[in-house]
Write a structure and sequence with these properties.
Helix content is 64%, strand content 0%. By secondary structure, the chain is mainly α. The chain folds into 2 domains: 111 residues, Hypothetical protein, domain 2 (Endonuclease III, domain 1); 72 residues, Helix-hairpin-Helix base-excision DNA repair enzymes (C-terminal) (Endonuclease Iii, domain 2, Orthogonal Bundle), CATH 1.10.1670.10. The model has no long low-confidence stretch (mean pLDDT 95).
């Protein structure tokens, strides 16, 4: 599962999880369930692009994935070894990999490498703005807000991020479903509609 999360963190850039899932299934069919990172690294960029086609931007993502896989190869694809690297140093190294931005790096750290870092995505920004009328734009600014308000706890950050994503997908969509939302009584955006 952590190997799929690492691959998915790159593939989910500018696409939805359903398409990423199909791309990961293609990889698993072609490479098997085990040691998928090592096997994917051994593929040509062209073959990798072909397998991840459902994720969109497949040529670009294949290059980004190959860069990340080269980084992981330096650790012999040993995720436990990566987990032993201090969080700040590991995040800095991930951010130096071409095609790995802050959200991708933090997703890998939180969900694949069990590091308590908060992941900021478009859902997080949307909920902050709508629920609390907090309009922070910078990734680090939002990340620091959450990490200063909540203790560095892996399970808490995973659950909180997951709940934000779920709520935003179900109720706080681009055209919000305020009438159905269980948080409407405490929501700044919903209060402005009355």
């Amino acid at each position: 599962m952590p190997e799929e999360i690492i691959i998915g963190a790159v593939l989910t850039q500018n696409t939805n999880w359903k398409n990423v899932s199909r791309a990961i299934e293609n990889l698993k069919k072609a490479l098997g369930e085990n040691d998928i990172l090592r096997k994917a690294e051994a593929l040509s960029t062209e073959k990798l692009a072909e397998l991840i086609r459902p994720a969109g931007f497949f040529n670009l993502k294949a290059k980004r994935l190959k860069a990340l896989l080269a980084f992981l190869k330096a650790y012999d694809f040993d995720l436990n070894r990566l987990k032993s690297v201090p969080t700040d140093a590991l995040r800095k190294s991930l951010l130096e990999v071409k095609g790995v931005g802050k959200e991708t790096a933090d997703s890998i750290l939180l969900y694949a490498l069990d590091k308590p870092v908060f992941v900021v995505d478009s859902y997080t920004k949307r909920l902050l703005k709508r629920l609390f009328n907090i309009d922070l734009q910078g990734y680090d600014e939002i990340k620091n807000l959450f990490e200063s308000e909540y203790p560095p706890d892996l399970a808490l950050y995973q659950e909180l991020h997951g709940l934000i994503v779920e709520h935003a997908k179900r109720y706080c969509v681009k055209r919000p479903k305020c009438d159905e939302c269980p948080l409407q009584e405490n929501c700044y955006y919903a209060s402005q509609l009355k």
